[in-house]
Design goal:
alpha+beta, 7 helices, Immunoglobulin-like, 44% helix, 237 residues, 2 domains, four-stranded mixed sheet, four-stranded antiparallel sheet
């Protein structure tokens, strides 16, 4: 099932596969403003058939406002991406969970990702809640890496070994946090998405538990179905 893993791991990849706009009735509007952006291009990406795909774009000339209209069947992860031209900045992408309705994204050119404010998606609110719990652990991991580096620089191997053990425990805690969050939010499409992106290489029992715990509605949605297919494929290996 590597094709799923690769597809979900391309948040920073700019593999352009353009698609024509659907002329059917739209049920999702994504609009907002990039303060400070006078000229440039914004893309809307999603993972489609395991490929990171540009599904729409808008050219900004003077007016920093933008709008995308599209149709989705269930909550889905999208990526609002700014083309900065020849700039080497990597601050050019905002991932967000979209759902049917109107979603507003306001940000700035200076801090495109950090300043992003996303309104109108309860699913995205749940996803942001998960990211906050995850950040608490990853921040501690980053601090540990610095401590390990300093310990090794001082040739204090005993201290370094102790920190390595703690870091291993934090890594396990990171996976456990993801699993617990998914199980406790079984009525959100964030649950199967976390399983596919954060727990795909864990013991199959975790994936089974998450999938079997999903509400009927979520299980029939895009990520619920993909999780079921992924579990079935892993069990056949």
């Amino acid at each position: 099932m590597k094709k799923y893993i690769c597809a979900f791991a391309v948040s920073g990849l700019l593999l352009l596969t353009a698609c024509k706009k659907d002329t059917s009735d739209y049920n999702l509007s994504v609009n907002g403003k990039v303060e400070g952006l006078k000229q440039g291009k914004l893309y809307l990406y999603k993972v489609q058939d395991t490929v990171f795909t540009a599904i729409d774009s808008v050219v900004i000339k003077g007016n920093p406002s933008f709008n995308f209209n599209l149709t989705i069947d269930s909550p889905e992860m999208f990526f609002l991406t700014l083309d900065r031209g020849h700039s080497k900045s990597i601050d050019n992408q905002i991932p967000f969970f979209a759902e049917q309705g109107n979603i507003e994204i306001n940000t700035t050119l200076k801090s495109f990702f950090k300043d992003a404010k996303i309104l109108g998606s309860k699913t995205n609110d749940v996803y942001q809640e998960y990211l906050q719990t995850r950040t608490l652990i990853t921040n501690r991991q980053n601090d540990l890496l610095i401590e390990i580096f300093n310990a090794e620089k001082e040739n204090n191997q005993q201290k370094a070994d102790s920190l390595y053990v703690l870091n291993k425990k934090l890594k396990a805690r990171l996976y456990l946090n993801a699993a617990n969050f998914a199980i406790n939010h079984n009525d959100s499409d964030v649950a199967p998405y976390i399983a596919l992106t954060e727990l795909y290489d864990r013991n199959i029992k975790y994936l089974d538990t998450i999938y079997n715990n999903l509400t009927g509605k979520v299980a029939t949605h895009k990520y619920g179905q993909q999780l079921r297919e992924y579990i079935e494929e892993r069990k056949t290996k």
